[in-house]
Amino acid sequence: MVSYDRMTKEELLKEDESLREAYKDYQKRDLSLNMARGKPSPAQLELSNGLLSNLNTDDIIDKESGLDVRNYGCLDGLRGMKRILAKMAGCSEENVIVCGNSSLNIMYDQVARAMASGIMGSTPWAKLDEVKWICPVPGYDRHFSITEHFGIKMINVPMLDDGPDMDMVEELVKDPAVKGIWCVPKYSNPEGKVYSEKVVMRFAGLKPAAADFRIFWDNAYCVHYLYDDIERQAEIPDIISACSMAGNPDMVFEFMSTSKITFPGAGIAGIAASPANIKDILSSMSAQTIGYDKINQLRHIKFFESTGGIREQMKRHAKILRPKFDIVKNTFERELLGRNCGSWTNPMGGYFVTFRTLPGLAKKVVSIAKEAGVTLTGAGAPFPYHLDPDDSVIRIAPSFPSEEELQEAMNIFCLSVRMATVEKILGKD
Amino acid sequence: MVSYDRMTKEELLKEDESLREAYKDYQKRDLSLNMARGKPSPAQLELSNGLLSNLNTDDIIDKESGLDVRNYGCLDGLRGMKRILAKMAGCSEENVIVCGNSSLNIMYDQVARAMASGIMGSTPWAKLDEVKWICPVPGYDRHFSITEHFGIKMINVPMLDDGPDMDMVEELVKDPAVKGIWCVPKYSNPEGKVYSEKVVMRFAGLKPAAADFRIFWDNAYCVHYLYDDIERQAEIPDIISACSMAGNPDMVFEFMSTSKITFPGAGIAGIAASPANIKDILSSMSAQTIGYDKINQLRHIKFFESTGGIREQMKRHAKILRPKFDIVKNTFERELLGRNCGSWTNPMGGYFVTFRTLPGLAKKVVSIAKEAGVTLTGAGAPFPYHLDPDDSVIRIAPSFPSEEELQEAMNIFCLSVRMATVEKILGKD
Fold first, then answer.
1. Which residue of A295, A406, B42, B106 is 20 to 30 Å from B177, comparing CA positions?
2. From residue B388, how far is each of A247, B105, B341, B381 by CA, in Å?
């Protein structure tokens, strides 16, 4: 395939025309395809339908605690659910608090608490002149929305192949106004990168100036493997133990959730941290609620018992997701390889593929695709304040559409990339 | 019956001795009875067991919205659930946001949001030198825990027979540091009092100095009648309409919950407010979560459809609760009437009875009862900072124990009241 940057102007004009023809054909079809959000597909949701009605009146007393799960109480969650989340994330069950259906909500609450009351006795962040936050980029847009919402100043740090640029992170935490960092350590959103053991250890060994600096370790994709063979499944060290061994036991909050394991709207989320943090969180949480939904926790405990546990469930998800990631990869290779019009990631897990256009073209590509009926995550979304300095990163979320829809959406996406690139080289934009 | 304050010293000493004998007998029995919390009893929980397994795979698409309730989305909740909460509280469904399992959590979140971000553009409360809050007393301990948690200065206002002392409330809101007031307008916790229409209208017409002053209207017991005959069922005006008509549309947040209608640990809670407030709340909530548990909302919609709605469900609760309130009332009348050793409320709804000892005896009574195996809500709990200025209010929560246990607990309670009173008059304490 001839790379666009080596084509003659004549060749480019011809290519431009032919791409426009193909594009017009798509536009005529009035399509409505969506690759914007990391939503599981209906077929994936079916995998958890057992949860809908797996409890009956014989189940309502939790065996371990003797608690009636229908009634008030049990602020930190059922032991059985703690065990499931701990095993999943690779931490100790003593470190876990089980909450409601949303790990995002827990992260928000942790920042809100720190704003209003500080952490473990520190000055409430809302009383400080400035609070800063490290944001590895590209990252998860909803993380950045939380810190933006609270008026926290976000500082970009680039993601390298094995995690955030730790030289920069180590330097930045010397500033006492820097209070936190967003991390998705395994199959990161949106690049699908995995932090190396070395990076995890550098995190554990950080020497932040602020005693209330916290690593927000969103282990959202800890078991979200696309491949069943163990050699292709990444493992990372338990950050809580690692921090503890490095003499920083209280420096991390870890978040986990079954949203992309059972039901996105009705899963179980949790937070894990050191005993001192857990105590601090519970003291605040006891003013916030009498307890989270224990019936749903019990549903999950029973569901995983009867279906082989989380790993087996994830194999079933992978079976549905893998062909979709293959479609993305194969379409990129077929349509774009050798044309020098962008690059893409090939993740082994998680929910996203990241495409990088030539500089300055992400917004344009998203807009071209939109006009042909394909909705993508907004360009800029994976960056604080929606500002992609290179305007080049586009997050692809292949999970929700059917394989047929996805193939069509990817065809249109690649077409949009080619159009934008050719136009740029021709100086048309 | 001879009133204690008219007995001779000799009579009192004899009474004291005889009470002590009875008390010793109870102590020997090593009882463990609990009237501390407003927890529904197992028999009440049974009424909602239909919720455990009433959904199947045919139900997962919400008919009104076409949404798959298993997946992400729908921040403000299902329409059908809004309608149920609105009808219950007597407000308009457009004013409702449906949240998770805990109205307390929503109240906490509303205060937390105001602390961190202000309300509708106001200065974040955390940045102010002082935030004050009006607390009708006695009131709900968990309300006071929220405001105490955020370091808000609480000001007591006495509850009169038809609601808080509105002369005081009207005066206090002239202070711009006063940002809110806790209200349980119907069958108040713990006295079971109902705000009169006049009081509701005076609330709606308040002229607070602070534009971000909000009435926190916790309509927790809006349908929690103990008697089925309509003459004995209180109705109060819709505070949201009332505020709107009085030219204060944004002055109130109303909270409601099915915690004491279906399952305390897994019900559905909501907040109602003006359109401008709803917009403000959703903008903050969209940073906090992708959405609450819609499956549980759908469970509730289907459950109420198939069981005759909330009013019928409340009749079934009342049938279980009424005999317990009768036990409390009858025991008080049998053991205490005419002795001049305290007074009690006779609520027509809600979850609590309030007993007032002679001044200075509440803690003592709670402690005497405790030593005979009866756990009561701590004396002082219904007051900010746990400080009952008269040390006389004790909250009785009769819902959880069986009728037999409750009768025993009430016998011990009355005995404890008599002992404390006699000792006081004898000058023994």
1. B106
2. 45, 26, 18, 8
